[in-house]
Every structure is written in C-alpha cells, then in structure tokens.
Amino acid sequence: MNLQLKGAEKLEGTYLFDLATSAKALRLNRFLHGLTVAANRALFKDNPEAAFDKAALSAEERKMVHDLDWAALIRYGASFFCLEKLGRVKGVSNPEMVAGFRGESLEGFLKTRRVPGAR
Amino acid sequence: MATILGGIGTSHVPTIGGAYDRHKRSDPDWAPLFRGYERVAVWLEDKKPDVLVFFYNDHASTFFFDHYPTFALGVSEIYPIADEGLGPRAVPPLKGHAGLARHMADSLVNDEFDISIFQDLPVDHGVHSPLTMFWPPAPDWPGKIVPIEVNVLQHPIPTPMRCWRLGQAVRRAVLSYPEDLKVVIVGTGGLSHQMNGERAGFNNEKWDMKFLDLIARNPKKLTAMRHADYIRLGGTEGAEEIMWLAMRGALSPRAKKIHQNYYLPMTTAMAVALFEEPAVKPTSMKARTGRKTRPSFRTRAARAGIQRRFQP
Fold it and tell me: Does residue B289 carry a pLDDT above 90?
C-alpha cells in the first residue's frame, strides 16, 4: 500500500497508474510508446495486424486499439501519455480523447469548457 | 561562482508549444496565454541567464516503464527534440551545459541524492512546450539548459517533500560551481487537470489560486501534503505540481514572486509564475569593506539563506 495515495482510491472515475497497472498493461503500453518510431507508425498505418503481431497484443488489446476505445483503454491500464502517441498518429486531439474517457461526444465536452476554440 | 537569479513555474501542456508554432498570439482564444508569458520573456531578456535548470517530466516519449527513472539528470552538450508521434517539433535541438551538469551530478551524489544520469537522449514537450513562450529560438536558443527528469507518471512517484529537498540539493550544487554562470531554475507541470477516467477534464481554480499563493508564501505547507491530497484537489495530473516545489526549493526563502498568469481554456489550467532573488549588491559590500572583491561563496550562500549540509 502506497501511503501517499491512501484515500485517492475513493475518487470516482479515476485510474491511478501504479506498478500493478503498469505490469498488467506493459505490452500494450510498449506498443503505444513504440509509435514514437517512424517505422512502427508506418507499419501500423499500412498493416495494423502485422504491427499488433510484432507487439504480441492480445485479441482484447487489438480490438481496443483498433476501435480507438479510449475509455476501455484507460480502464485496461493504458497510460494516457502512451495513448497520446496513438492519438497523434490517428489525428485525434486530446480534448477528443478526454471526451471519450468521459463517455461524451467532443461537442458535448466542449460545451463544458470556457474557451472551446482553444484547441 | 555561479548564482541563481530566480525561478519560473510553468505549465507544460503541449498546446502551449502548439499555439506558438501556429502563430496564435493575436487569436483571442490564445492571446491571454501569450500575454501572460511576456513579462517572463522580458525578465529573461534583461537578466540574460546562461543556463536554465529544468525540472520536467518525460511523457513516456524518451523513457519507458521497463525502466522509468524517479529522478534523472541530463549531462549532454545537446538534446535532440523527441518524436512524440508526429515527428520532432520544428525547433532546434536544445543546448546543454555539460560542465555545470557534470558538476551537479558530483555534487548531488556526494550530497546523498543518488540521481540517474542520462545523455544523448531526446527531450520532449515537458521542456520545450513552455520554453518557446519565454526563451524563443531566434533562430537558435538564447542559452543552455540542464534537464532534470522527475517521474510523475508511474506511482510510486517521489513525495512532495523529496522534490523540495531535491531542489535544495540542486541549489547547493549550482552555487558551488566555480564558473561565473547566471542560472534560473524552472519547474514545469500542472496546474489542475486530469487525463484519465470519467473524472477527466476535472479542474479546480480555487485550489490552483491557493497553490499559486502557497508556492510563494508558504511552500512548506505544500511539502506536507500527500499525493492523495494533490490528486483530490488538482486531479491526477495536477500532481505534477511537485516539480514546482523542486524549483521553489532551489530558491532562497527571500525570493519574491513578481508575476503570475492563469488561463484555463480547455482541460488544463495553464499557469506561469516568476520568482526573483534579491539582488546581491556589490556596491554595498564595497562600502562596508572598502574592497572590490566579490564576497565568498559561503557569505553569499548565507545571505541567500541557504545552509550547506556538509561544511568542508
């Protein structure tokens, strides 16, 4: 138990990235982190299944990445900062990803923001 | 001897760099952000520091969870710009001050801060996103940096108190460097935001304002808080504020906050605060002693309010 985090587990809709999560999703996060390399991006764009094979992703992991199911990816244990790489490759902005986490449309989410044009 | 002129606390959201790159200075949606950095840019232009020491976090761009350093000090002459999925941002590679960084490594480790060392690795938006706002390349960067990476991604992350103490150790390291360098300390990250789960998009302006007050007036209070408090008040990624604590720990208690700006347009509260150390006045020294010599390191350190843990 990390005493620094005691109480944080009570926060709803919050997924802390700790060592257990990191271990569970290491393969998935390594694939996402790998998108910082141009050759991996090219393979993912040209032949996603080959990229998934290379990263040895499970069927569940492949489906979440393929569907860009941001909420499921976060719940599974993806690091937001690794997901950002997938967002960039697929042309999805951070506000759109955040809307996905919240189960909202981008338009719905932007209505809750002070300056919706600041993207 | 090296001196510390002051410090900067700043958010490092990638869109800050994006707004700069897309020339959004006159866009009403972005103008309040640009205006907030102008005072900092003018201050740096006036003070002309040689080096910015940067407490920042990598975003799983350079480092990965197979070996994620809690604290890591960059000791290179040059840092490439990291590819974060779109190819590297079109800014020049960052220039490092290897001499100061190597000295800091010796000083920190001998001061019982056993920090990881990295070299020849790229640096991501945690450093260069805010940097272009106040130290823009024209066409090259105005000076050099020393990057210090802090793990704020994978718990357990260092405690707020540990970050404060790292700042104090960095102060001892910088002030004991024999070359006459002018140094400014930068702490990046925050303020309130959360980038996961249904609570994503969480902000807390009231807490952000309190943080901006306490970081200047009573930082010790912030060191006594736990991560669970930071996460509750400022969101999971608001916990990045511990890097501001490292910056503040590297300043003297007499440093004054002379500027701040706060802008919350989208998901992350974008703040900047500028801290200035009291000027060391050689003329008053001259008047008192009748000598033109510069006061010793120990005298200046004492004036700046720091205590060395180990007296030689």
Answer: no
Q: Find residues 177-236 of chain B whose CB sits inside 8 Å of chain A.
A: 194-201, 226-228, 231-232, 236
Q: Is residue B308 part of a domain?
A: no
- Is residue B241 within 8 Å of residue B234, measured between CB atoms? yes
Residues 6+ apart with CB under 8 A from B217: none
Token output for B234: 């400022």
Q: How far is CA B134 from CA B36, B131, B137, B186, B299, in A?
A: 10, 6, 10, 11, 32
Annotation marks residue B125 as catalytic: yes
Tokens matching residue B69:
């350093």
Fold of the CATH domain A17-110: Protocatechuate 4,5-dioxygenase; Chain A (1.10.700)
Q: What would the mean pLDDT of B196-208 be, rounded to a whole number?
A: 98
d(CA A38, CA B143): 30
- Give the C-alpha separation, B139 to B91, whole Å: 9
Nearest to A14 among B65, B197, B266 (CB): B197
The tally of domains found in chain B comes to: 1
Q: Compute the nearest-CA separation of A27 from chain B (Å).
A: 10
B288, pLDDT greater than 60: no
pLDDT (tens digit, 9 = 90+) per residue, B228-270?
A: 999 999 999 999 999 999 999 999 999 999 999 999 999 999 9
Please determine, for residue B293, whether its predicted confidence score (pLDDT) is greater than 70: no
Q: Is B85 near chain A, with CB under 8 Å?
A: yes
pLDDT of amino acid B312: 38
How far apart are the C-alpha atoms of A18 and B153, rounded to whole Å?
8
